[in-house]
Amino acid sequence: MIKFLLLINKHGQICISKHYQHLEQEDRQRLEKELIGICLKRGNKKSSFLEYHDFILVYRCYLDLFFIAGITKDENEMAIYEFFHLILETLDKYFPKLSEVDIQFNLDKVHMILDEMIINGNIVETSPARILAPIELLDAAKR
Amino acid sequence: MLSSIMPTPKRLRDLIREIRSARTAADERAVVQKECASIRESFRETDNTYRCRNVAKLLYIHMLGYPAHFGQLECLKLIASQRFTDKRIGYLGAMLLLDERQDIHLLVTNSLKNDLSHQTQYIQSLALCTMGSICSAEMSRDLAGEIEKLIKSSNAYVKKKAILCAFRILRKVPDLMEMFIPSTRALLNEKNHGVLLTAVCLITEMCEKSPDTLMHFRKVVPQLVRILKNLIMAGYSPEHDVSGVSDPFLQVKILHLLRVLGKNDVEASETMNDILAQVATNTDTSKNVGHAILYEIVLTIMGIKSEAGLRVLAVNILGRFLLNNDKNIRYVALNTLLRVVNADNNAVQRHRTTIVDCLKDPDISIRRRAVELSFALVNANNIRGMMKELLAYLETCDPEFKSDCCSNIVFAAEKYSPNKRWHIDTVMKVLTTAGNYVKSDLVSILIQMIAETTQLHAYTVQQLFLAMQRDISQQPLVQVASWCIGEYGEQLFNTTVEDAEAVNVTDEEVVDVLEKVLISKLSAVETKEYAITALLKLSTRFKSLSEKIKRIISVYSRSTNVELQQRSVEYTSLFDKYDQMRSALLEQMPLMENRSKSVFAANGETSEGNDILLGTNENVDRTNAENKQQSTVQSESRNILDLLDVGTSPVIPSKQEPPSKSGGVDLLDLLGGVASLAAEPAMPNLVPVAPSVNLIDGLIGPAAPNILLNGSAGFSSTFTAFSKNGLLVEFACERDGGQPTVTSISMKATNSTPTPISEFVFQAAVPKSFQVQLESPSGNFIPPLNGGGVTQLIKVSNPQKQSIRMRIRLTYKHNGNSVTEMGEVNSFPPELWQ
Predict the structure, then answer these.
(1) Tens-digit pLDDT profile for residues B360-376
(2) Can you give the residue ranges of the GAE domain (chain B) (predicted)?
(3) For a FRET experiment, which of A107, A128, B68, B320 has its CA 20 to 30 Å from that of A26?
(4) Percent of chain B with pLDDT over 70
């Protein structure tokens, strides 16, 4: 199970933070701050998995975007690592020339996309076309 | 009112720009606070044109970590709206801002219930998604029926989401499982990947929660096998294809479920053997995602009752992983090998060289795993080669790993060393490479090991001396070396050592090096303690230098360190007052019992100890005495005291040739003053240097010579003052040599129950003709099972020489109860006052 998913930019600013297990506001903030520090420091040079407290931290960095997730120990960390790429591909498909700013300015859309992919910490859909169908429908209705 | 003509609220985009352009954290806070204020203001307005925009801004503010709970009610209003866009933001807000502990939940539950049965699938989906993330136990009970209905829906889009809601419900209320089992089983016939993926998740969760359900779902193994087969055989399916692998996420989940189902079940495992082999051989590993599947399949093969051939295949997959360029794959491989190394050691052994190569990996977490794995692979056959690699690793590894690495090397060497010489060399290498990272407990273990290897004493002491001469800053090395030089100093000049460079030193140089250790600012106090004791011992080994040594030692009688000062003073008086005893006292330490053996001995019969002790008086030969254990010190000493009491000829150590050093130690120490009982438990039993200090303690104690020479003048005795419910209070009484009217009583309380006693307070009262003085106790906590005790010194002054009577009161806490016990002690032996 995925416990939480963070998207941050290379300055360590949070773009998306989704928690699938309840955390108090302060704990959440402390955890996020710590993890961002760890991941930015490790960067690309070290392995993307590490054991952290009671979960496994998986992260992946693209040019100006970092994906960070905390997963339970029974989850396959390599699959989650690939799943990051699936998220990125899906976002990339929706936002042409995806950049970190797109995510920031379309927070609700990104949330919607992620909600089509993950529910309650479990992957629910892996086909980008199917993930994006409802969002594209919504966009069409607006026009 | 001014606020009624509010300006149009800022757009989210503008707010984000403004916040991002804030230079300092304070600036950012100011922007956020201002915006929050205007959002609140706007919420108060009944107008809801901008409610959506405001909530969206709030979500951003919340993400940055500012409080945004005041938006909760607005979210509910949006959820209740009929417009899809409002609902969407409302539910998104609910997911992020609410949590399952809010009272507000009741209100959400109603909206959810309505929306779950909405005719639009997208609204149903919003409700399902929200429920999946905020569902509480109560909500689970309220909505389980709706969810179960949706699982049976023919709409795959709603179905897959409902399945994960069921997952959440079962996490919250496991009792509801029964209700979902029939509908879940039917799910595996679906074609939709989303439904299959979520269904497999749900089944896995159910199986892990209840063994009965696990039994039930074992029947679906063939079905799962079929799905998996379709996935790998059906060829290209563009929709779920990830770089040429067909739906790897589904494959991974199915493999995980197979692992759960096949665990400890031969039949189920048999059914999946073939497909596992197929997946393992057919998966394309040119892309990273193939590795994710192989990784899962290895875990499954190792987790079920699979065939031996398959297990070898699995380990070989991991072996291939180790050669991969991707550090993540190497990391995962090592991690998994670590998990399986105990079960399939032989299969893993085959990849030893690859694993050892990972010790040089640039990634620290890979090195960490590799070293762990390497130690797990060490055995009697490969010890030489592995140790070579591990010692090389020790030299270069990060400081944080060094001390653990040393300990592991030492333990592995102890377990598998091919011969003693190699063992000593390895240990020496550890001491010289790891320097100060060697843990202190290792020092005593090494000393013991060296002491046991009698045939190599000369070699060891020479090598240690050379190493120490080269570098005196490495504390553990210097400590071990000092001890050995003290013990086996004369062997330094033994030139018959086989194939080792001859050591060309004079006794003077040896003393100089030890002196340098004492002077060096780099030496820890503990190291200096080792060195000063070593010098003392050398004073009998190098007779010609005894004056010089005495001078060096005496310098520290003014040391600011109490321990060093005490040693110095005591050792000096050994030179001055007890010179005739010195050489006997400073003989080689007897071999110490091995740690494991001594635990055994502690449980052995005490009568054996008594026999040996009696033998000590009759000058039994050395070997016999060497067998006796330190752990029986207490009972032995009492025997000695008994002997004295009975009136046998007084034991005078100077005349007697002590058959064994430790025999002398115990004897003198305990005769010297039972009062020193309190200090005794602090003596580390494993560090051999300590007992010799103990010995001196006893000798210099003011009462000691008196007692030794006039066995009847001083008197001491130990008896039980109180014993009830596992609490034992013993009095060790002694008549003070200097003041015959004063009796010192050392109280020792021990606890034989399995639970500890806390807040222990001992009080004593005496009749008016006496005076009693209680010194502060050593503590108030008594560990269980006689694992230690509390000691306290009581002084009773008895000027009228009456028979001593005492009332005692004990208060303590045991098993959570406060206990108060009273007692009268009348059994003091008359020798204390007559």
Answers:
(1) 888 888 888 899 999 99
(2) 714-829
(3) A107
(4) 82
Residue B685 pLDDT level (bands cut at 50, 70, 90): very low
Distance from the Cα of B309 to chain A's closest Cα (Å) equals 24
Q: Residue B365: its chain A contacts at CB < 8 A? A: 46-47, 49-50
Q: Which domains does chain B have, with CATH numbers?
A: 409-576 (1.25.10), 595-709 (no CATH), 716-832 (2.60.40.1230)
Show the tokens assigned to B660: 């064994």
Q: Of A16, A29, A107, which is closest to B56 when you measure between CB atoms? A: A107
On the 0-12 / 13-18 / 19+ scale of CB atoms within 10 A, B547 is exposed
Q: Tokens for B277, please give them.
A: 């082999």
CA distance A110 to chain B (A): 11
User: B141 to chain A, minimum CA–CA distance in Å?
Assistant: 17
Sort residue B723 into left (φ over 0), alpha (ψ -120 to 50) or beta: beta
Question: Is A52 in the B-facing interface, judged by CB distances under 8 Å?
Answer: no
What tokens does B452 get? 């046991």
Nearest to B129 among A78, A119, A138 (CB): A119
For the segment B196-254, what is each residue's pLDDT rounded down to a tens digit? 999 999 999 999 999 999 999 999 999 999 999 988 887 666 777 777 788 899 999 99
Phi, psi (5° rounding) for residue B813?
-115, 130
Interchain pair B327, A122: CB under 8 A: no
For an interface test with A, the pick among B23, B60, B70, B129 (most A C-beta atoms closer than 10 Å) comes out as B129
Which residues are registered as beta bridge partners of A71?
A2, A56
Instruction: List phi, psi (to 5°) of B762.
Output: -110, 130
Q: Which domain holds residue A75?
A: 2-142
Q: Is the pLDDT of residue A4 over 90?
A: yes
- What token pair was written down for A67? 């994906």
Cβ A105–B13 below 8 Å, yes or no?
yes
Contact A112 B92 (CB under 8 A): yes
Residue B808 phi, psi dihedral angles, 5° rounding: -125, 155
Assign residue A122 the CATH number of its domain: 3.30.450.60
pLDDT band at B821 (very low <50, low <70, confident <90, very high): confident
- For chain A, the 3-state helix, strand and coil shares in percent, each to the nearest 5, are 50, 25, 25
Give the total number of structural domains in chain A: 1
Q: Does A73 touch chain B (CB under 8 A)?
A: no
Choose the weakest-confidence range: B148-157, B176-185, B471-480, B605-614. B605-614
Whole-complex ipTM: 0.95
- Mean pLDDT across chain B: 80
Residue B156 sits at the chain A interface (C-beta within 8 Å): no
Interface contact A46-B365, CB threshold 8 A: yes
> pLDDT, tens digit, for every residue of B397-416?
888 888 889 989 988 988 89
Contacts of B150 in chain A (CB under 8 A): none
